[in-house]
Specification:
Elements lengths: L1 H27 L7 H19 L8 H23 L1 H8 L6 H22 L2 H15 L14 H8 L8 H22 L2 H13 L5 H17 L2 H18 L4 H13 L10 H10 L3 H29 L13 H24 L4 H18 L7 H35 L1 H13 L3 H18 L2 H11 L1 H6 L4 H14 L8 H10 L3 H11 L1 H12 L10 H22 L8 H14 L4 H31 L1
Helix pairs in contact: 1-2, 1-17, 2-3, 2-8, 2-17, 3-5, 5-6, 5-7, 5-17, 6-17, 8-13, 8-16, 8-17, 9-10, 9-15, 10-11, 10-12, 10-14, 11-12, 11-23, 12-23, 12-24, 13-20, 13-22, 14-25, 14-26, 15-16, 17-20, 18-19, 19-20, 19-22, 20-22, 22-25, 23-24, 26-27, 26-28, 27-28
Length: 626
């Protein structure tokens, strides 16, 4: 009885807290703005409350453990209100980076809460890195060589952690300013039935084609991922339907799980919303979010086009047909249901890219449009219960983001006071020498290793602090450098041995996670190659109404086609080694920035493509005559 009554209480409490959190954040950018640090304190406090509310010490625990969780909730509120209620005193003391005894104790409590929240939501890796950097700050003065620094007292370390260098620094600022509002937008979209509608649209568009279920998984995950920006959430939502359907249609379990994992991971790099890390990138790189969306569009489409073609070729190899037409929804009907979702997304794009308002203002207008369209929709109308569940859903999605950002703030604070980030950056420059390629490979390895145990947001923050300056120093542009790190921080979700998206897909597919991870790496090969492409040829980040964009997009999709054919070793038929080499030559030529070289790749592609078709048709006619 206690468990049942507690669950009801928790749900009611979460709804009330979710509504309050939503109104607070909307109000911050509309009618009642407050000082930035005070607002971040509210955000972190509410995020920690959601963590300890939804991530208990022990699942299905006894009453005493629930009391401990509520004690941590009380501590979170206490720390938050110390900063909120004594804001002027806090800012004055923290400017000197020397907290008095009161703020020293509160700072230690805050650090403990952030580390524990991070441990509960994303595991031990990030808290361990944070603790390691703290120990380095305190005892690094005794180290030999380049790693040595002058050493810092525990008071100085706690002051940095409990300041706008640390847990109230850039990562939590981005979470409070941008990420939460987009989480709220995505949660309200989901409450409006977006996941089901996008799924049905994908079925209607691709279901009857060869390999329809797998293509449907790609399209559905692309649509849903572009608004959720979370690989695991994408797998668990769309994959629960698409993976069993792919298995029933004849796809191997490892292939079905891998398709969903790769398609869901792409949501983190797919405009218009992308993942939480993209908002952090906007702040770290000093580039508007709209500009990032525009630059990321072609690489994201290349990622999905390559995956789509590989799925198509797999269906040919396995002789897999589409779904019966009578089992498919009608495109016209599903597009009508999409209206209430298309309008808010159009509003978002209009304000973000045309009017060029801030992301916060853009998404607030979009939330308003979504609520209005939802309430006037004829089917699946948004009601008060769904609306409240949407606010509560945003709260459920907040813990991982807040924990990762706050804990990353500890790491960046220690990097700042010790100069470790600069030392790390110089090490990469020296190791890579004058070779951009070698430096990029080193950066990729570090980013993927970090991303294996961390969410994309946390992995990107650490890499942006330590590695981005090195890439910029050797001549890589600011946007390509940061987008390069964002890609590899995201693609680590499918990279074994620790691949969270592959793990999630494995649970649904009933297959070994390592097998799915290895297959996902093969299918997601574009995600590993694209960052090198747009760093070495920045035309792939250009979008405009000009010939450069036209030529680049033609080259891009030719490259996607060739890449899929080479990896699958199939193009309506099994291709030869010579054909593979010729397709490699097409990729090498078409990917270049010079028009003449790129155009030569087009010519070679069409010669191979139509030449092979002519030879096959001639053989078929000869066989028929015989």
């Amino acid at each position: 009885m206690f468990g049942l009554s507690y669950e009801k209480f928790r749900n009611y409490f979460a709804i009330a807290l979710g509504v309050f959190t939503g109104l607070l954040h909307i109000g911050q950018f509309t009618i009642y703005p407050m000082e930035s640090i005070r607002f971040y304190a509210w955000h972190l406090m509410l995020g920690l409350v959601f963590v300890f509310l939804y991530k208990p010490t022990i699942k299905n625990a006894s009453k005493k453990w629930l009391i401990f969780d509520w004690f941590l909730i009380a501590l979170s509120v206490f720390v938050g209100f110390v900063v909120i209620g004594q804001y002027d005193v806090y800012t004055e003391i923290m400017q000197n980076s020397r907290p008095d005894l009161r703020f020293f104790i509160v700072g230690i409590i805050a650090a403990f809460l952030v580390l524990e929240a991070s441990r509960r939501t994303i595991g031990w890796v990030l808290p361990a890195i944070a603790v390691g950097t703290v120990l380095y700050a305190m005892f690094g003065g005794d180290l030999p060589g380049l790693l040595a620094h002058r050493g810092y007292s525990i008071s100085r370390v706690v002051g940095a952690i409990f300041s706008d260098q640390g847990i109230y620094g850039t990562p939590i600022a981005v979470s409070a300013s941008n990420i939460y509002l987009f989480l709220l937008f995505a949660a309200l979209l989901s409450a409006s039935g977006a996941d089901i509608i996008f799924q049905n649209v994908a079925i209607a568009l691709t279901g009857r084609k060869r390999g329809g279920p797998a293509k449907m998984a790609v399209v559905a995950s692309c649509l849903f991922g572009s608004i959720s920006g979370s690989a695991v959430a994408n797998v668990m939502s769309t994959g629960a339907f698409t993976i069993p359907l792919m298995k029933r249609q004849g796809y191997q379990k490892r292939f079905a799980g891998a398709v969903e994992a790769v398609a869901s991971t792409g949501g983190q790099i797919m405009p218009p919303i992308m993942g939480a890390a993209a908002f952090v990138m906007s702040d770290f790189a000093g580039i508007s979010y709209g500009a990032i969306c525009i630059a990321a569009l072609l690489p994201a489409l290349m990622y999905y086009v390559t995956l789509f073609k590989m799925v198509d070729l797999e269906s040919i190899k396995s002789n897999l047909k589409g779904l019966p037409p009578e089992n498919l929804p009608k495109v016209k009907d599903e597009l009508k249901r999409c209206f209430k979702l298309i309008v808010p997304l159009a509003v978002l794009m209009f304000f973000l890219l045309i009017i060029q308002t801030t992301p916060m203002t853009s998404v607030i207008y979009s939330i308003g449009a979504l609520i209005v369209c939802g309430f006037i929709a004829r089917e699946d109308r948004l009601n008060l219960k769904k609306l409240l569940n949407g606010f509560a859903g945003a709260g459920r999605n907040l813990p991982q983001v807040v924990s990762a950002c706050a804990c990353s703030g500890i790491v960046t604070a220690m990097f700042a006071i010790t100069g470790l980030g600069l030392k790390f950056s110089n090490f990469i420059v020296q190791l890579g020498g004058s070779s951009i390629i070698l430096s990029l490979i080193l950066a990729m390895i570090i980013c993927v290793i970090l991303g294996m145990g961390l969410p994309a947001t946390a992995a990107y923050i650490i890499c942006a602090t330590a590695i981005a300056p090195a890439l910029i120093k050797i001549g890589v542009g600011v946007l390509p450098a940061h987008l390069f790190l964002l890609y590899f921080a995201s693609i680590s979700a499918i990279t074994p041995p620790v691949a969270v998206a592959s793990y999630a897909a494995a649970g649904i597919a009933g297959e070994n996670a390592l097998k799915i991870g290895l297959t996902a790496v093969k299918l997601g090969i574009a995600g590993f190659a694209l960052p090198f492409t747009f760093v070495l040829n920045s035309d792939y980040l250009h979008l405009g109404f000009d010939l450069l964009t036209l030529f680049t997009w033609i080259s891009a999709f030719i490259v996607c086609y060739c890449c899929a054919v080479i990896i699958q070793g199939y193009n309506e038929y099994k291709i030869t080694i010579i054909e593979k080499l010729l397709y490699c030559a097409v990729i090498f030529s078409a990917i270049q920035s010079g028009f003449l070289i790129s155009a030569s790749g087009w010519v070679l592609f069409f010669i191979i493509y139509w030449g092979s078709r002519f030879v096959r048709n001639k053989k078929a006619r000869t066989t028929f005559l015989i």
